[in-house]
Amino acid sequence: MERYFDTHAHINTEPFILDIDKTLEEAINEGIDKIGCVGFDLDSNKKALEICKAYPNNVYAIIGLHPCELNGLNDSHLNELEQLLDNENVVALGEIGLDYYWDNIDRNIQKDFFRKQINIAKKKGLPIVIHTRDAIQDTFDILKEEGLDNIDCIMHSYSGSLEMAKEFLKLGCYLSFSGVLTYKNARALKEVASYAPLDKILIETDCPYLTPVPFRGKTNYPQYVKYVAKEIALLKEISEEEVSNQTYLNALRVFKIKEGGSVDE
C-alpha cells in the first residue's frame, strides 16, 4: 500500500488556512499520511505550531526564518525562534538559506542569519531545511564550512545541477524534489533524480507553489505530491509504491518520527 509524506507544504498560509480541516481531510483521504508544515517568519511559524497541535499525528512543524523575510530582524528574533523550536511538534529548522534572486536582503545579512540558524539547529539536534535560489555555491560553501556532523540537511525543492547534487550528497544531504520535476523542460533535474539514491530522496509539494503537471498553473495541494513520486518512479523504472514508501521512511528517519506518528525526544 502506498503512503506519502509531503515533506514541505505551506498549509499555514492562504488558501489552506481558510479551511484547514477541509485541506487536511482531502489530503489524508488521498493517502497523504503526513505533512511537513513549513514556516518562514515568526507569524507563519506560530501558525504551523497551531495546526500541528490540532493534527499531532499528521502534521509536523518545520520552522525558521527565510532569507527573504529578514528585513528588520535581529538576534532577539533568533532567540524567539529558538524558544519556539522547543515545541514537541517541531521536527526541523527551516526553511533557511540564501536567496539572491530577489536580492531584497543584503547578502551578508542572509549569510549571517543562515550560519546562526545552522548553529541553533546543531544546539537543538534538529535537521535543517535549505532554501537556495541563485546562490547554490555560497549555500554549499556555508554548509561545508559550518559542518553537518550531528544534523541532517534537506535541500528543499532541489533545482541545481547534477554536479552540485553529487557534492551535496557527499555532505550527507537529502535531495527533496517538488512538482518542478514533472515539467518537460526540467531535463537536468530529471537527470539528478535518476542519479540520486532512493534512500536520500524526499518528495514535497511546496504548496501552494510549484504545482506539478497536469495541474501546472493552478493552486498546488498536498495530495499532488503523488505526481512527484510518479515521476521519480518513471525515471528510476521502479514502482510508484516503492518510491512512496521509501521516501516516507526517509522522512520518518530524517525527522525522527516514530512509525506511530510521535516524535522521538
Describe this entry's structure for a reader.
The chain has 265 residues and is of the alpha/beta class. Helix content is 41%, strand content 17%. It contains 9 helices and 8 strands. Strand 1 (4-9), helix 1 (20-29) and strand 2 (32-38) form a beta-alpha-beta unit. Helix 8 (225-236) crosses helix 9 (240-255).
Low-pLDDT stretches: none
Count of individual beta strands: 8
Can you summarize the main beta sheet? 8 strands, parallel
CATH superfamily assignment? Metal-dependent hydrolases
| CATH structural fold name | TIM Barrel
The CATH architecture can be given as Alpha-Beta Barrel
Number of domains: 1
What is the N-to-C succession of helices and strands? EHEHEHEHEHEHEHEHH
Distance between the termini: 29 Å
Radius of gyration: 17 Å
The residue fraction in helices comes out at 40-55%
* Subunit arrangement of the protein: single chain
* Shape, principal axes of CA atoms: globular
- Strand content range: 15-25%
